[in-house]
């Protein structure tokens, strides 16, 4: 399915955005906004909604059949799109860019188009190191590592989410460093402080995200199941690899579980709480990310409790309180301290608003990104 935004002509500066698997994902929305601001015309070619390309792919015994079918349909759609665009039209690959690269690389090179990948996730980090769906010593794990490296080398430009990931994957490779840029997460305008509804918090702590190992969800739930937390109200929104077993094991009267809410209702939900929770996993991936949900909370002026890693290493006084990863006692102690101290929460909220109105604003991040990606614009 093709979605064209803006007029296509032989003289227009355009982009072909291929391979979005989740149209509501904050990263996909961010890249779309960026491309719309940079190019006269954008053609978007997402994956089919029932493609089966998610974290459950390798749990399916027929994953090779599912993958082959998806690749065939994706290849057909991409070929139709790229032949309908002028030569100067750039090709931008959404995450997971490694899979999209298998489809896009042959025609992109044949037609001499500039190829840009959003290396938002590493397949090896996610499936092997973080979610542990694949044995690290298996042939498939080794293949995923090679696909990651091949993708980085094959692209003309690479977009990383964080400084930590850029440093880790470039690892001193000067040619890769020269063609790499950083695009921090930035949610849409509904998360801007000026667009907020200024709700008075009715609950205490909110967690929004996938119940995956990178989040350290089991440590969070162990901490809030303590009797010391019985007087506070918690909300968990999401599902995933670690649910529903963990959620069922930790159900309490003061803990609410919600599978899903519409994206445009997320800002009001966050504002209905005094504190948000980030990620607490200890994997390499967990240490290298700047979670979308952390940025979303900060944009709304809501403090965030999260673990040490990318944010604590490269960003100071932005409204976050940091603890050691995968540490139930540390999470519990921080929650007790913060929830019992309105003054400390107010100071973190002030830092969050200052960050979101300054260097962490959508305008500031977009401006920096346009400068970093200026070589992509004819």
């Amino acid at each position: 399915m093709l979605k064209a935004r803006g007029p296509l002509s032989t003289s227009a500066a355009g982009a072909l955005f291929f391979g979005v698997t989740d149209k509501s994902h904050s990263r996909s929305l961010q890249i779309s906004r960026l491309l719309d601001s940079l190019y006269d015309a954008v053609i978007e070619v997402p994956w089919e909604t029932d493609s089966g390309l998610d974290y459950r792919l390798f749990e399916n015994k027929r994953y090779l059949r599912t993958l082959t079918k998806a690749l065939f349909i994706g290849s057909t759609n991409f070929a139709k799109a790229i032949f309908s665009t002028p030569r100067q039209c750039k090709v931008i690959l959404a995450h997971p860019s490694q899979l999209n690269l298998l489809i896009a690389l042959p025609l992109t090179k044949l037609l001499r188009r500039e190829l840009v990948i959003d290396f938002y996730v590493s397949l090896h980090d996610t499936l092997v190191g973080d979610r542990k769906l694949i044995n690290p010593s298996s042939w498939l794990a080794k293949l995923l590592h090679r696909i990651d490296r091949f993708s980085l080398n094959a692209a003309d430009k690479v977009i990383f989410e964080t400084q930590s990931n850029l440093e880790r994957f470039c690892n001193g490779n000067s040619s890769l460093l020269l063609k790499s840029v950083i695009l921090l997460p930035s949610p849409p305008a509904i998360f801007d402080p000026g667009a907020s509804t200024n709700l008075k918090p009715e609950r205490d702590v909110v967690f929004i995200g996938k119940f995956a190992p990178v989040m350290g969800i089991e440590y969070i739930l162990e901490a809030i199941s303590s009797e010391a937390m019985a007087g506070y109200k918690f909300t968990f929104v999401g599902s995933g690899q670690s649910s529903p077993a963990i959620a069922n094991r930790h159900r309490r009267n003061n803990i609410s579980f919600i599978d899903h809410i519409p994206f445009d209702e997320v800002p009001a939900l966050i504002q209905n709480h005094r504190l948000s929770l980030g990620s607490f996993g200890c994997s390499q991936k967990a240490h290298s990310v700047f979670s979308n949900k952390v940025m979303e909370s900060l944009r709304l002026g809501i403090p965030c409790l999260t673990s040490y890693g990318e944010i604590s290493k490269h960003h100071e006084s932005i409204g976050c309180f940091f603890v050691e990863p995968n540490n139930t006692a540390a999470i519990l102690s921080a929650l007790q301290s913060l929830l019992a101290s309105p003054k400390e929460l107010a100071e973190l909220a002030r830092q969050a608003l200052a960050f979101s109105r300054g260097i962490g604003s959508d305008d500031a991040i977009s401006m920096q990104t346009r400068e970093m990606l200026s070589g992509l614009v004819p």
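The first strand starts at residue 3 and ends at 5. The two ends are 27 Å apart (CA to CA).
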